[in-house]
Amino acid sequence: MTDLHPRETPAGHGNGALYLQFRLRQQRFALDVREVIEVLPRRVLKPIAQAPAWVAGILTHRGALIPVIDLSALSFATPAALRTSTRLVVVRYQPAAAGVELRLGLILEQATDTLRCHPDEFQPYGLDNAEAPYLGPVRQDAEGLLQRIQVNDLLPDEVRRLLFPEAPGQEPA
Q1: What region holds the CheW-like domain (predicted)?
Q2: CATH classification at residue 157
Q3: Average pLDDT for residues 69-78, to the nearest whole number?
């Protein structure tokens, strides 16, 4: 059915930002789609020796080698479930230490829905989680809490240096 009445949008807010929703275990998370380059089905990866268990491997994609992390394994020490809705999402990764935009792959469960909302609907949740700086603010809706992931904060420095050893502007270990 068509909505015949136009919806009013508060001045200065536009239509909001678009987010890719996904789950880690039963928890809901979101990525700003401006950080997403491409959403792919899960692929076979080349493992990386001596990397943390949550580093899933290397993807060859469009002529580039892209390191991939399993966000479920990083966050909850449990690898992502092998489901048809589990996706490999290639994102723009630009940590301050690298100074350039890199590509990083993320294995995400149930990464099949999007949400449009205003960024200011996500609010700080009051915890200083130094072990997981990538966990951003949260938004409450009818389905519960939705937490935003801060892509540029995903990798600790030592893992970033392992996965991106030749990144310009990166200081030697």
Answers
A1: 16-160
A2: 2.40.50.180
A3: 94
Whether 2 is in a domain gets the answer: no
Is residue 36 situated within a structural domain?
yes
C-alpha distance from residue 159 to each of 48, 52, 68, 81, 89 (Å): 12, 8, 12, 23, 19
159 close to 55: Cβ distance less than 8 angstroms = yes
Rounded Cα–Cα distance for residues 115 and 127 (Å): 25
Can you tell me the distance from the alpha carbon of 82 to that of 85, in angstroms, rounded to the nearest whole number? 8
Q: d(Cα 77, Cα 104) in Å, to the nearest integer? A: 19
Per residue in 101-127, pLDDT (tens digit) is 899 999 999 998 999 999 999 999 877
- pTM recorded for the entire structure: 0.83
Examine residue 7 and state whether it is found in any structural domain, yes or no: no
Is 113 a domain residue? yes
- Kindly give, in sequence order, each residue whose CB lies less than 8 Å from that of residue 109, ignoring residues fewer than 6 positions away: 22, 23, 24, 72, 80, 81, 83, 85, 86
**Nearest Cα to Cα of residue 57 among 66, 46, 65:** 46
Using the 8-state DSSP alphabet, how is residue 123 labeled?
Answer: B
**How far does Cα 152 stand from its chain's mean position?**
9
| The total number of structural domains that make up the chain | 1
| Strand partners of residue 146 | 28, 139
